Amino acid sequence: MPQVAHFPTNDSQLAHTATERAGNASSDSSNSNTEAYGDETVAPSNLNEKQAPIPSTQGRVLDDGRIEITEDDCYDELGFSFPAWKKWTILSIIFAVQVSMNFNTSLYSNAIKGISKEFDVSEQGARCGAMIFLVLYAFGCELWAPWSEEFGRKPILQLSLLLVNIWQLPVALAPNFASIMVGRALGGLSSAGGSVTLGMIADMWESDNQQYAVAFVVFSSVGGSVLGPVVGGFSENFLNWRWSIWIQLIFGGAVQLAHLILVPETRVTIMMDRIAKKRRKDGTNPNLYGPNEITPFKERFSFKEVLVTWIRPFKMFLTEPIVLTLSLLSGFSDALIFMFIQSFSLVYTQYNFGTIAQGLSFIPILIGYLIAYLMFIPAIWRNKKDREQHPNDEKAQYESRLWWLLFTAPCLPIGLIGFAWCSGGPPLPWIASSIFAAVVGIANYSIYMATIDYMICAYGPYSASATGGNGWSRDFLAGVLTIPATPFFTNIGGKRHLQIASTILFAISFVLVLAVYAIYWYGPTLRARSPFAQQLQQGRDENGGRRLSMIPGPGYGSQPGSRGHSRANSRMGSRQPSYAQSKPVAPGMGNRDHSYVHKRLAKMKKEEEGA
């Protein structure tokens, strides 16, 4: 049973506790699961400041005499301690990587007419290339994620980018339509997507400080899908359809090269392995080993554990009401963008827009994304203050993350109904429908950002699986709806078929948006009725109320080695081994990183002085 952390109430007790814990680290095996702040020394005069842990030279002594390195032994050499400029340089490259992946999904639409003409297939048939890429992209993200945590972010992302670029060639050089379908299918399956890029955020930011980085990456994800038709309008107008594919390859190749040169490995366990090897080599500690060196690969990552990991997001998607509701909301919102790719040409043809102008008509959506991103910056600051001021308030720790979405989610139905009845063509000005398209963009970004943030918090150690369901639903629904999008707008009879079609979308979105308010007010009740949440609560009770890195018992897969919960990770008590472990589970516990601990101690000291 792990030792339950307690908070000393005076300065002398603080010093005594830190010394006592450090002295017992190697003799008492139960201390191996103590929170990371257990071994740090707190200076009374700097109690309000965030302090990095003091590196230990002991590590964890195993039965065979080997010493396993811990995060506290090398914290200053991990991604958490990168300077801000380095973190944001890395994140900027990841931004470009994510844009390129989503760029590939949408630019293909501008090649549809050329493909249809050259290979004598209908335009609807040619759209299958967009559909199959998105559908397999949804599955590809989940297939790549576990391997990035086993072998490192950089090699897996490099391999993914390389394969995506290779599979562009059969499409660009296609002698027949079948070659296009095969190349697009393999390209989608090879795309790692946000499952890896979000994991890199967890490698570099502590749990209470990563929301700004998440917001930045979310902007790249949604923005990339809109950039495609903007660029595609020019390529379709001036170049052969194959250039729409060559442009994807050129962009992807440039991004891969930048990633190779500028982005180091950030995965915590991989960096710890390298640090341990370096210290053995230079004689610092010949018995020091990294977490992945301690346990053989087969034990850490068996086929059964990979299968359990891969299935878990889909199981949670179907059985967890919060995951299902928020994922459907997020997925439907994203699917609208790909339906808009088809409907915009129908709407703006009425204004005699050419190919380039139709592509530029997507810029308002991009502006909406930018507005939403900028609005989230003060919203995140407010949320952090709320959590700090109410550390024992479950609502503040969880549902407060949806607070800003309460105001922005209605932009989805408002934007759709406004776009619907401004899409009838002249005499209505085209700018009217563009304004409402920007409103839809605000909603789409806000929904994606807030739902991911909430799921990470609500599902603790298995939040990667919860957000995996979110990402899967967005890509899968967008892919499935790519084919019926145009018939949906054209097959409705009557003079106002465009208005009626978008009004139907408005009605569906109105019902889905109501779910945001239901979860905000009844989120604690929904979690209490969730069988998975009950397992988490039982595990917390057995662990003295502390956050768990994994939970025992059957259910969603408590196998060691599953994504974010490998034996190496769970054994070393990692502060941030994966994105799955980056948020608190227990209500009132807050985020037990160093900033939280010092703020809590400072608050207790002030209360004691006031008394």
Can you tell me about this structure?
This protein is mostly helical. It contains 27 helices and three strands. It has helices spanning 11-23, 84-107, 112-119, 123-126, 128-151, 153-166, 168-172, 177-189, 194-204, 211-238, 242-262, 268-281, 291-294, 297-300, 303-319, 321-349, 355-360, 363-389, 394-397, 405-408, 411-420, 430-458, 463-490, 497-529, 531-542, 567-572, 594-610; strands at residues 60-61, 67-68, 288-289. α5 (128-151) packs parallel to α9 (194-204), α10 runs antiparallel to α18 and α16 runs antiparallel to α22.
What is the SS-derived class? mainly alpha
Helix content: 55-70%
Uncertain runs with pLDDT below 50, 5 residues or more?
A: 1-57, 545-550, 552-601
Radius of gyration: 25 Å
CATH class of the domain at 79-266 and 301-529: Mainly Alpha
Spatial order of the strands forming the largest sheet = 1-2-3
What are the defining features of this structure?
611 residues; Growth Hormone, Chain: A; 27 helices; transmembrane; Major facilitator superfamily (MFS) profile domain-containing protein; MFS_trans_sf
Outline:
With 611 residues, this protein is mainly α. The chain has 27 helices and three strands.
